[in-house]
Amino acid sequence: MVLMLLSGLAACKLTLPERDEAGDSNVTLLMPPQQYVGAAQVELRVEAVELHRDDGEVHRIDLDPPETVELVADELEEDPFPNAVFIDKTVRSGDYRRVRLIVDRERSFVMSTAQGEFDLVVDGGDRLDLDSDFRIEAATDEELIVDLNLHAGLVERQTDFELRPEHVVTTAATSGEVRFSDLQLATCVDPLNAGLYLYEGLDREPVGLGARADSGPFFSVWSGNLSFFALRYVPAGAYTVAWSCEAGDDVPGETSGIEFEGQENLEVEAQACSLLAFGAGRGEPGTC
User: Fold this and answer.
1) Residue 20: per-residue pLDDT
2) Coil, strand or helix: which one is 50?
3) Which of 33, 88, 125, 258 is deepest in the core (most CB within 10 A)?
4) Quick one: three-class SS letters along 243-287?
């Protein structure tokens, strides 16, 4: 499965040098679905997208008709194609700080694996604000990636589900793909509880979703027992990847710890693919 990808990440920040901006770009907005054991379906009906620049200008793209985004990947798909929210829209180049999704609450829902259909509400009523620094380069065809972290951000309440702004915003040009194999998740007593956690930096000590934002996971996936899946859009950088048999018991905001079964270091390079197999050493670019 592919996620772009990528709990502790209320706002992902790309550190980029300052650069002069000039001209417009053709932008496509992609939202990858992800493996998620907690629900059979999560459908987000998007009516418009706002891109907020650093200088305060807001570029709004109205979707007619609105776009239905399925956030949960089919369990049989190892590498599902991302949802295209809009394609080839002209956007002013430069530095941005927020993606805002305008959501139709009446037509957004969660299909629970055990209890049927529930309303899906988002932080801000009909607005989901995804704060993150990113750049749209001039005179390019840019793919902007919004990856929602369902494991950290989808919270079951008494009568509905809330989608919180746990996310990664990146671009295809500054991201690499990560493929995972030999995950050893079948060793879990309850394989459906298995999941993966990514942390920024090498040799990090893994912690669960209840940790402080500065020490918690960059992204997490409650994947269940998958022998292989992929994350298509991981921002270039160095990471620690850990796996746990208790991901299904890890609740955002709760401080009770979970146990981790193992970890490996991972390096991601833009426009390259890194293969990570637990027990086989560091995942490096150009290995898949």
Assistant:
1) 40
2) strand
3) 33
4) EECCHHHCCCCCCCCCCCCEEEEEEECCCCEEEEECCCCCEEECC
